[in-house]
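Continuing the series of single-chain predictions for the mutant panel. This is the parent chain; the variants come on the following pages.
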Amino acid sequence: MSPRALVELAFSVGVEVLALTDHDTVAGVANATIAATELGMELVAGVEVSAFARKEVHVLGLFVDVSCTALLAQLHVLSTGRVDRLREIGRRLAAVGASIDVDAVLEAAGGANVGRPHLASALIAAGHVKTFQEAFDRFLGRDAPAYLPAGRYEATDAIALIHTAGGVAVLAHPGVDDMDDQIRGLVDAGLDGLEVMHPAHDGDARDRYLGFCKLYGLLISGGADFHSPSGPNLPGAFGISRKGLEALRERRSVLRWSGASKGS
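Parent structure:
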């Protein structure tokens, strides 16, 4: 969806504060902010950085300065790597009998960042699968034949980058990535919070990550992991309380006051 369409969808289901955390890009934040302002919503500028901590992980940056030159430079590197990764996954799909036109996928993206959800849509259009979930289960997921991990940008560096951009660093969906044994090390590197509320986290997982937050003094975040209107969850489905939002906002203020964003 376009940034404006996403904001309008969120508004239609009652979201008051929306964080836009596209993968490895902040290109949509400006238009999303304009749309949110027109509707009387708050738009939190964010990004989801592809990183590595013994395995592929994602680190959310919330309240980032989208004009930070260091952030923009690294996101450009990651975006370029995304295109290379997409082409290699396309070759792997062809090898297992699920050919798609990768050039057409890139053209349809119109210069936007590309990733596995774009390939999932192409697999559906080509008749190889019927749903996004089937595309990931059969071809694109971590245990599937066409899977290719992202590059080796260290999660500790991603945390530092987010702080340089004046943002709050949150580990995305730790239960999905089986990151329990990595949390302490990331805390030592400056991690600010965990995405506790997430569609893949059941009650036990939420309680476990709430325990981590209490143990290490981490903040609580949450999100629907929304990628497409054809997906199962709408924006706001796994949000956090106003108190939780203000705690994230306060951490952002502390980071900026302490000079974490110096040189941005």
